[in-house]
Structure formats: structure tokens, C-alpha cells
Design goal:
The chain is an all-alpha fold and 47 residues long. The protein has 3 helices and no strands.
């Protein structure tokens, strides 16, 4: 969500985190980065 422009406070509310720092831990590693690593390294992602 953050990678696509969502404000972190909206993500916090969506995930129902009481503290913003909890949300920050989860969004620290972006989904785009995770997807890149998955596509480069996971056997199921290879053709």
C-alpha cells in the first residue's frame, strides 16, 4: 500500500495498529523489494 502511495497513517488504521512504530516495522521492507528478491531467487518464480 505504501509503495503505491498510501499514507502510512492510513495503513496503520487499516492494520489496526495502536502505535505507528508497529506499522513502520512492517513497511520497512517494501513489497517491491520483496517481489524482486522472490523473482530472482525463488524456484517457483523461475521459468
Amino acid at each position: 500500500m505504501v509503495d503505491n502511495g498510501a499514507d502510512i497513517r492510513h495503513v496503520q488504521a487499516f492494520w489496526e495498529h495502536a502505535d505507528l512504530s508497529t506499522t513502520q516495522v512492517y513497511v520497512h521492507v517494501s513489497m517491491m523489494e520483496l517481489r524482486e528478491v522472490y523473482n530472482k531467487t525463488h524456484p517457483s518464480a523461475r521459468d
